[in-house]
Design brief:
The chain has about 180 residues and is an alpha/beta fold. Helices cover about 40% and strands about 20% of the residues. The chain has one domain: Rossmann fold. It has a 5-stranded parallel sheet, sandwiched between helices. The longest helix is centred in the first third of the chain and has 15 residues. Bound molecules: flavin mononucleotide (FMN).
């Protein structure tokens, strides 16, 4: 099974990255073939709402989305790890998601299939009841556009300093187990 892993944080070796690394260790042990995408290393322009994808089916912005589109469409499973930024996802990740308007336009008249499994791992510094609401909705709709079903959501609140997730009593084991289940299904 091909698994695409999207690292959404601009922070190197941050909490969401550590969580995703552990998830992928589990997934690798169960036989997944993994492709890692670090959004912070990509050059992705924000969508300009030019309307070209609706008219012609193509995006006139030439950047690293040309690498990302085939990876998104060709994978069997998808996992996104992201911090919470102002109740949403970081701008770099949001730019990637918004550029999937091209795919949304192509598929808008088709019934969603929900064939591929998708996972969300998210971490935030605050502890409020609604801390992950914005991230979950954004990722759910991103997945819907790609025909991916959000199967499991793993969120960790109150984790702020880089690496603080290592002090969490169960997080790294939980994500490792979730990754391990993915490809042994
Ligand atoms: C620009 C910015 C905005 C943030 N906004 C939120 C927020 O709205 N809610 C929250 O719980 N944490 C917020 N945080 C804290 C991060 O989610 C937290 O530090 C997280 O552990 C970072 O994950 P990372 O190490 O994977 O980057 C914000 C941090 C930054 C830098």
């Amino acid at each position: 099974m091909k698994l695409l892993a999207i690292y959404g944080s601009p922070r190197i070796q941050g909490n969401s990255e550590l969580l995703l690394d552990n998830f992928l260790e589990g997934a690798k042990a169960s036989g997944c073939r993994i492709t890692r995408l670090y959004v912070r290393d990509l050059n992705i322009f924000p969508c300009t709402a030019c309307g070209e994808c609706e008219k012609t089916g193509y995006c006139p912005l030439q950047d690293d989305m040309q690498i990302v589109y085939p990876l998104l469409l060709d994978t069997d499973a998808l996992v996104v790890a992201t911090p919470v930024y102002f109740y949403g996802v970081p701008a770099q990740l949001k730019a990637l998601i918004d550029r999937c308007q091209l795919i949304w336009q192509k598929n808008k008249k088709k019934k969603p299939l929900f064939l591929k499994p998708g996972y969300l791992i998210s971490v935030g510094g605050a502890k409020g009841q609604h801390a992950f609401d914005g991230v979950i909705l954004t990722i759910k709709y991103f997945f819907l556009t790609l025909g991916v079903k959000l199967e499991q959501i793993l969120t960790y609140a109150g984790v702020d300093a880089a690496g603080a997730i290592k002090q969490h009593p169960s997080a790294l084991n939980e994500v490792h187990t979730a990754g391990g289940r993915l490809c042994s299904k």
